[in-house]
Write a structure and sequence with these properties.
The protein is α/β, with parallel strands linked by helices. About 40% of the residues lie in helices and about 20% in strands.
Amino acid sequence: MKKVSIVIPAYNEEKTIEKILKKILDVKLPLEKEIIIVNDGSTDKTKDIVEEFIKKHPNENIKLINKENGGKGSALKVGIKHSTGDIIIIQDADLEYDPNDYPKLIKPILEGKTKVVYGSRLRKRNKFSHISFLLGGLLITTLTNLLYFTFLTDEPTCYKVFHKDLKDILINAEGNKFDWEPEVTAKILRKGYKIYEVPINYYPRTKKEGKKIRWKDGLEAVYTLIKWRFKKI
């Protein structure tokens, strides 16, 4: 393996996008890094900030893809389609997740133990911005375990890491918003892949600080998990 692709969907993240990019560049990995930012129709200065960052780091492999707003899933599918890495890491554009966790996230794949790794916020003592987010995540994870006979602790985690062999599943998912994640989880499990979890750090932000997920997204995740348990894939 030679390269890891870090795919970042970004929608109105002018306050944090430069900081997260700096953190990613600072992480030492045994693989070359490819950073793909998908600007999902931002109306703030996200695009300008990323373009300026790329100019300041001409020797780094950083790509910016601009598209109309379509949701997190649509942005991820575009970014993953353009990725060329042997391993793909999903990274949010905020500062809730710490790129310093990358080495332990990619290690099980490098060692041949699995082709899918999820970073679990529940396997380490972390804070949550609100009890509703914690309980919602637990509900989705419990439903995943019941429907797909697995033992995950944190299905809704952002840190989902994949071997390139799974690109077709990721790109061809129907979901275009937050429903992309439970759909991908469902299809991976139904195809017999084992999801390996590692503990990660988590620094939650509030809705006021820009957290975008809402209770309706949780309901959509429940529907998605049930649908793909029985729908032909």
